[in-house]
Amino acid sequence: MVDFRFDIKPLFPQPIIKVASNLLPHTFRGDRRQCLDATSKMSEIIDRLGHLSAVSQGLSKPVTTAQRLRMSENQTIYLLADTEAGHNGAVTGLLKVGTKDLYLFDEKGQTRKMEQSPSILDFYVHESRQRAGLGKHLYETMLSEEQWLPIKCSVDRPSEKLLAFLGKHYGLKRTIPQANNFVLYEGFFEDAASQNGSRNGHAESPQRTKNGLHITNSPNTQLFGATYLGDEANKRNNRRGSGSQQQLQQQQLHQITQISPNGRYGAKRPTCSMAESRHGAGGTGNIARKSEVSLTPSQARQHADNPLKSPLDALSRVNHRQDPFQRRSGLQDVDESFLAMNTFMRPSRLRNSGLDGNLAVPSNPVPATPTGAAVAPMRSTSGQEAPAQPQQQQQQLPQVNMAAVQQQQPPPAVAQQQQQQPIIHAGSGNSNKGGGGGNAESSSGNDIAEIAEQLQHLQAIEIEAYELVPEPEQEQEPEPEEVVTPASPPRRSHTPTPPTVRSPEVAESIIGDNRKPPAFQLSKQHTGMKNRSFGVGMAVMPTSKMEFNQQEREDFGVVKINRPLGNEATTPGHDNTDAMSTVSSTGGLTDQGYNDLKFYHNKLW
Ligand SMILES: CC(=O)SCCNC(=O)CCNC(=O)[C@H](O)C(C)(C)COP(=O)(O)OP(=O)(O)OC[C@H]1O[C@@H](n2cnc3c(N)ncnc32)[C@H](O)[C@@H]1OP(=O)(O)O
Asked: Low complexity composition bias: which ranges (predicted)?
């Protein structure tokens, strides 16, 4: 018996209840809260019984789960409970049924299309209660509720026990061989017009569908045999009254092969990216190979004596796989091949996947940064193509002459750039969100970080962090800072020099070139150079008081710091003159001997 941590009796006002996709007993009455509670408990019951059933049948995964039931439209689960058992009662049996549209072989080996055919999908009685008539009780209740006849029910890969059960209780012994997992019994097709076996009261004419196709002659039909045909596809076919025979054949073939083996093995597997790429890159070979496999009705008939094996074993000889699920995988390979061809290679998907060449895959080789990092295809954040990468500037970067850097007096604009760079790197390298983002009036930290990263990329800065060297004798002199290059000595400053980050290459490129780089937006998506200034960020430790002042968008790479709006820099280092920094009360030195700096800047923009 299967007992639960909760009392099942409220869910089972009667021994057998019916559960549909709403996961509620058909007898349920209650408010929203009770509904949620009942759904939760019913899900647990179904999952538990489904798991036990799978274990009992030796299946690797349950055929029945609450999730599957929720997603289904035409399936019903019957649950049998013993409310007297234990304290909370116990659930003792499960029977899942549903209707299927099937192409089936009749006794003559001809294909018939059966719509809404009753199917037994899962059946389980707890081991402790088997062979006590509970199974029959459950089955009979189901037949009564659904108004089905036992002989009209197809059974999805029945176990030996179920075959014995059906033989004993309903005299069902002689099966009609099928190429799929379903087992039918002789009499299934008899008097079909007046039975539930056909929704429309009559079965399809053998060999021909409504489209007049001899689908049994198709290699795929021979491979799959009777195969599930979706309602929607059928309606589509019926709507098309005209059209060439060839089109119809292609359509039918496509329709059949797109649909997986049905029943408990028919669940669509999630799209496999490997399969996608494999088939997309020429998976037709796989299709051709699989298509060579054929299982004719006569072949299937050879296995009629043992319906458990008949369809699958024939296929297993081809696939050389023993496990039913693996065999199913073999079948689905074919299915996926067609899916890959017909679905995943559609132009729209190709566009999305960038395989059709319409995506922003540059025709030119991807430019590489001086450090060797490839730059991603450029696309602005707005989704538009970004302007071409300034390769010219990048190509100039290696032409660095450090001697010239040290000797040459930078023009004011260049000095501004050089002086402001360290702050920018600091901001970007150490969570600039905490700086600019902390002030609601300032621009977002993201913008700053992005600008900083753009600068890093365009100017190909090899970031280096420099220790702060206190210069006590100069602290009282409010003189402008100068750009510090790796080869430069510490600058004169009214405060200890903040960590100045500048690679020789960048300094050279700015001073030597002194031209305005193009003003366009680049993000870290394009540069791929996130956190290049890691070392700087660690050294500067920007606080929420750190801001950036950029009055307007100037030349790309020129970011003015702490300059009041409207003020233009008049002398090199003017901006830094305005910068305020304080030294901590501990004399300006941290435990590590570095200056503890706090920057106070004006609002940005
Ligand atoms: C589509 C599918 O769901 S296939 C999977 C079917 N489910 C399983 O195989 C799970 C394990 N088996 C069970 O849960 C049960 O045995 C069921 C559901 C098949 C039958 O439920 P029960 O309560 O045992 O059925 P019930 O008592 O009404 O009928 C008993 C008859 O079932 C058959 N049967 C039940 N158990 C066995 C068994 N272990 N071995 C052989 N036949 C069995 C016999 O014909 C038996 O009659 P018998 O005792 O005179 O030989």
From this structure: 245-259, 384-431
Q: Which amino acid does the sequence have at 77?
A: I
Sign (positive or negative) of CA dihedral 384, 444, 484, 595: negative
The reported pTM is 0.45
CA of 164 from ligand 1 middle (Å) equals: 7
Q: How far apart are CA 440 and CA 605, in angstroms?
A: 12
Distance, C-alpha 567 to centroid of its chain: 52
Q: How does 232-266 read in b/e, with b if 16+ C-beta sit within 10 Å?
A: ebbeebeeeeeeeeeebbebbbebbbbbbbbbbbb
Q: How many residues does the chain have?
A: 605
Q: Whose CA is nearest to atom 37 of ligand 1?
A: 161
Q: How many CB atoms lie within 10 A of CB 67?
A: 13
Residue ID of nearest Cα to ligand 1 atom 27: 131
Pick the closest to residue 430 from 312, 561, 290, 542 (CA basis): 542
Atom 18 of ligand 1: nearest residue by CA position: 124
Please answer whether residues 325 and 260 qualify as being in contact, where contact means their C-beta atoms are separated by less than 8 angstroms. Answer: no
Q: Please calculate the CA angle 302-156-105 and round it to the nearest 5 degrees.
A: 45
pLDDT the model gives residue 203: 37
Q: Are 104 and 156 in contact, with CB atoms under 8 Å apart?
A: no
Indicate the average pLDDT of the chain: 60
Strands 154-156 and 111-125: parallel
pLDDT digits (tens, 9 = 90+) for 349-364: 433 433 333 333 333 3
Question: Is 522:386 a contact under the CB 8 Å cutoff?
Answer: yes
Report d(CA 237, CA 233) in Å as an integer. 6
Q: What is the pLDDT of residue 377?
A: 34
Is the pLDDT at 484 greater than 90? The verdict is no
Q: CA angle at residue 262 from 293 to 236, to 5 degrees?
A: 95
Confidence tier at 427 by pLDDT (50, 70, 90): very low
Q: What percent of the chain stands above pLDDT 70?
A: 32
Output the pLDDT for position 221. Answer: 46
Question: Which mutation among 161, 163, 169 tests ligand 1's pocket best, with the greatest number of atoms within 8 A of CB?
Answer: 161
Task: Please list the residues that pair with 95 across neighbouring strands.
Answer: 78, 123
Strand partners, 120: 97, 155
Q: Is 134 annotated among the ligand-binding residues?
A: yes
Is residue 125 within 8 A of residue 80, CB to CB? The reply is yes
**Greater confidence, 465 or 523?**
523
Ligand 1 center from residue 165 Cα (angstroms) = 5
Q: CATH 3.40.630.30 spans which residues of the chain? A: 1-199
Q: Which CATH superfamily is domain 1-199 in?
A: Gcn5-related N-acetyltransferase (GNAT) (3.40.630.30)
Alpha-helical regions (H) of 58-90: 66-71
DSSP 9: G
